[in-house]
Amino acid sequence: MEPVSFEDIKRHNPQIKPGGRFHPLDCKSRQRVAIIVPYRDREHHLKVLLNNLHPILQRQQLDYGIFVIEMAMPTTFNRAILMNIGFKEALKDYDFQCFIFQDVDHIPENDKNLYNCHNSPSHLAVSVDKNNYKLPYPSAFGGVVSLTKDQMIKVNGWSNLYFGWGCEDDDIYRRVHLHGMKVSRGPAEIGRYKMVKHKRDPTNHVNKDRGNLLKGVRTRMTKDGLNSLTYELLKRETRPLYAYIYVRIPVPGDMKSHQ
Ligand code: UDP
Ligand code: MN
What we know:
Elements: H1 6-12, E1 21-22, E2 32-39, H2 43-59, E3 63-71, H3 79-93, E4 98-102, E5 106-108, E6 122-123, E7 127-128, E8 144-148, H4 149-154, H5 168-178, E9 184-185, E10 192-195, H6 210-215, H7 217-220, E11 232-238, E12 243-248, H8 252-258
Parallel strand pairs: 2-3, 2-4, 3-12, 6-9, 7-10
Antiparallel strand pairs: 1-3, 4-8, 5-10, 6-8, 11-12
The structure holds uridine-5'-diphosphate and manganese (II) ion.
């Protein structure tokens, strides 16, 4: 759980290709997997994550890439729109079939927690230390989840409208169910994570509108998501351990003022 320098992580993982890509040389992976990490100002967490995740994913013999999507200041953080952007940008690089949406502070404990996709979307972070390794509520869908490319397109991705903390994960959970799918979960002893301890970030205050947004998911979901995604790509870099994507997000209020 201690941060290790990016240089040392690279040295310990010599097989990782630029952009945080890997595929096994002695077999063909079953799935091509993109790991999407929503990010702002958590370098300490990113070092802990990469130092744990790269070794695990190599042992799982995946054909994978890690994408870190950072949202420019000063706009209030929007985790879900970064997921949509990661989905879109990753597909520009490679024909990924499976997407793992991974919080930067969730560190998997068990090698058997396979980073792959199933017939239905799945919740990987089943038991997290901060929740005493218990699911906080039956429809929880936070921390780390996986959807295939087709499942993402079917539900129109994540909502773009949740600025600040809360309910964006419940929104996509409802989208999944409203499209006739069910979320699957593996056993709790396999889906175990430690969360790096932190305070609530200053630019990610609790979203007071989250309850209202969640009520409207059924009517909104066909027009709020991948098909309404707008962002400004500020930077794209192939860093040694991950692909770095830096974006500016238009705030709904700002857009109005430009109309
Ligand atoms: N996040 C970030 N910077 C921020 C706020 C959030 O990188 O300023 C990302 C990060 O991946 C984090 C996730 O969004 O793990 C969820 O936010 P947070 O950890 O605050 O939520 P929690 O689950 O701890 O309540
Ligand atoms: Mn957290």
